[in-house]
Amino acid sequence: MKTQVELGLLYSRSGSYSLISEACRTGALSAIDHINADPAVPLRFVPVERDPRGNIDAYGPLCEEILRDSSARHVIGCVTSWSRKEVIPTLEKAGGTLWYPVPYEGFEASDHVVYTHACPNQHLLPLLGWAFARLGRRGYLTGSNYIWGWEMNRLAREVISGAGGEVLGERYLPLGSVDIGRMIEEIRATRPDFILNNLIGPSQYAFLAAYRRLGEEIAHFRPETCPILSCNLTECELAAIEPAAAEGLVAAGPYFRGATGWPGAQRSFGSSHEAAAWSAVHRLARLLSGHAGATRESLAQLLAHAPGGTEGIDPATHHTELPVLIAQVENGAFAIRERFAARMGDPYLSHGREAAMPAAPRLKVV
Amino acid sequence: MKRKVRIANLGSARAYILHRPHPTVQALERQLRAIGLTVVQCWPELPAEAIAADFLFFDVDQGFDEQFPWRPGESPMPMIALIGSEAPGRIEWSLEAGAHAQLLKPVGDGGAYSALLIARLAFEARQSLSAQIADLRRRLDERQTVVRAVTLLAARGKGEAAAYDQLRQMAMAWQVSFEDAARRVVASHDRQEDGNDRRDLG
User: Fold this and answer.
1) Nearest chain B Cα to A93, which residue?
2) Residues A182 and A171 sit within 8 Å (Cβ to Cβ)
3) Looking at chain B, which terminus has fewer C-beta neighbours within 10 angstroms, N or C?
4) Is the dihedral of CA A225, A231, A233, A235 positive or negative?
5) Does residue A325 sit in helix, strand or coil?
6) How far is it, in rounded angstroms, from Cα B167 to Cα A55?
7) Would you say A126 and A103 are in contact if contact means Cβ atoms under 8 Å apart?
8) Same domain for A88 and A106
9) Parallel, antiparallel, or unpaired for β B101-104 and A3-10?
10) Residue in chain B lying closest to A354 (CA)
11) Whole-angstrom Cα distance, residue A229 to residue A223?
12) Domain membership flag for residue A203
C-alpha cells in the first residue's frame, strides 16, 4: 500500500531557457514514474504542476499556489537564479522546500532549498584550473546581464588575477539579446587564451555561431588554441547550437551523457540537468520513506530524522557531493577530457579556492 | 571608477553571538555555519576569549554597556547589531556601542552574509580612518614645535624658506618624520639655552 504524496513541479515550458526546463522536468517525471512503479518504495508521487512560461514575476505566486492549494511541501523547479531567489520568501513563509537541480553561482545556502547540481568549487574553479594548465591565464569574460553572469565572472576575475593572469574584457548582454558584435570585435582585438561563456539561451547560441565564424577567419580563435568554456552547457542545449559552432566547446559538469559514476544510479541520462532532477526526486523519496509523519516535516527535520541518513545532502549547506568532469564537444557529443575527484558543494568557498583547483601549478618549498 | 571590493574567504572565521538562547540565535547560527564560520553563543557575559573573535553579533534589545570589555566604539572586531524593537533609543545605543552593520530580528533564512561583509568593510574603513586621524592629530600637536624649530634655524642667518628646507633635509638624514626632526632641533636648543641636560625631551 503506497502513501500518496503530492509533489510540486515549477518549470517554464516556454521562454528563453525552456530547453533546460524540459531536461529537468524530464528527469523529475522519469524519477516519479520509476518510484511509483517500484513496489519497494512505500510512496507514490502525484505531480502538481505549474508553468511560469519564462515570466519571472509568475514564479513567486505559482509556487505559493502549489503550497497553498495542494498538500505538496516539496517543489522541484526553477532554472535561473533569479527565479530561485523569487520563490525563497514563499518557501520560508509556507515551510516548503525547493529542490534545485541546476548549476548555479554559489553564495547561497537557504534552509529551504536543496542544491543537487554543481556550484563554483564543483564547476568554475576546476574548469579554470584545467584551462590555466593547458591554454594560459588570459581570459575574456562574457555573460547575460543577471546574477549568474555577474557572480561567475566576479569569481573568475578574482581567480584569474590571483593566479597572475589577465582579464582582457568583460561584457554583458541583456537576457535574450543577440547583439554580440562588440564582444566578437573585442575578442578579435585582445586575443585571449580562452573565453568564459556565461551567456544563456539565444544570446549564447548567437555568440557561439559568430565565434565559430571568427575562427574560420583567424586560426587563433579555434578550439585548439582559444576554446569557449562553460559551466552550464549540457547536451540538452546542443541541438539549439549550430553543429559546427558546438564543436570544440569545453564544459565542466558533474555528468555528461554516457559517463559513469553518477551518485546513486546505474543508469544513463540525457544530460546532467536530467540526472540532477532525477536524483533530487529519488533523494526526497528516500527521506520521506521509513518514518512516521515524514511528509509533514520540514527539510531540517527530515535531514535530522530520516533513518537512512541525509542522502548525501550536507545538513549545513544543503549542497551535495558530485563528480567533477571536464568535457569537450567532439563529433556532436561531449567527450570526457578530465575527471577530478568527487567533492561536496562548498557554496561560500569556505574551504578556500585553492582546494578546488587541482590542476593549478603550486609553488613548492624545496 | 567602480570600487572593487574583494570578497575574501570567511571560512574558519569565528563569530560570537551575544544573545540569550532564542530561535533567532538558531537561525543565525545555521546561516553562519553554512557560510563556514564557527559560532559561540553567550549571554550575558562575553568570555575573555571573545577578544580574539572575528565578528561579534550583539543583542540591541537587552544589551548594556558593561557587556563589552572595551571602550564604546573601540571594539577590536566588526560588530553586528541584532535589532528587534526599532526604538530610537535602542538604535542610538547600538550606534554608540559601535555597530558596523545590523540585522533585524526575527532572523530567518538570509541576511547574515551581507551583514558580515558590510560590517567587515565598515570596520576596516573605521580602523584606517582612526589611524589617519591619530597621525594627523599628532602632527597638528607638533605644529608649534615645527614653527619654533624653523624660527631657530632661521635665526642662524637663513631665510625662513631655507630653514624649512634644512629641517626637511635633517629629517631625511636622520630618517625620522619632519615633526620628530623639529623636536630634536628644539630640544637641542633648549639644552644649550639653560645649560641643563634635557635629553629626555628628544
Assistant:
1) B108
2) yes
3) N
4) positive
5) strand
6) 72
7) no
8) yes
9) unpaired
10) B9
11) 10
12) yes
Degrees, nearest 5: CA angle B190-B194-B196:
90
Q: Helix-strand-coil percent breakdown of chain B, rounded to 5?
A: 55, 10, 35
pLDDT along chain A (366 residues), means of 10: 94 93 97 96 97 96 97 97 94 96 96 97 96 96 94 96 95 93 97 97 95 97 97 94 95 95 88 97 94 90 90 94 96 96 94 70 48
Q: Using CA atoms, how far apart are residues B46 and B43, in angstroms rounded to an integer?
A: 7
User: DSSP state, A37?
Assistant: H
Domain that includes residue A59, residue range:
3-118+262-322
Rounded distance between C-alpha atoms, residue A63 and residue B18, angstroms? 37
Please check whether residue A351 touches B, CB under 8 A: yes
The CA distance from A196 to A65, in Å, is 38
In a domain? residue A78: yes
What residues of chain A lie within 8 A of the CB of B28, using their CB?
none
Residues A304 and A230 in one domain: no
pTM of the complete model: 0.85
The angle subtended at Cα B150 by Cα B146 and Cα B155, nearest 5°, is 150
B31 and A353: CB-CB below 8 Å?
no
Which ranges of chain B have pLDDT less than 70? 1-8, 194-202
Contact call for A348 and B113, based on CB within 8 A: yes
Cell 564544459 sits on residue: A251
Contacts of A110 in chain B (CB under 8 A): 109-110
Residue B68, all three cell numbers = 563589552
Within-domain flag for B2: no
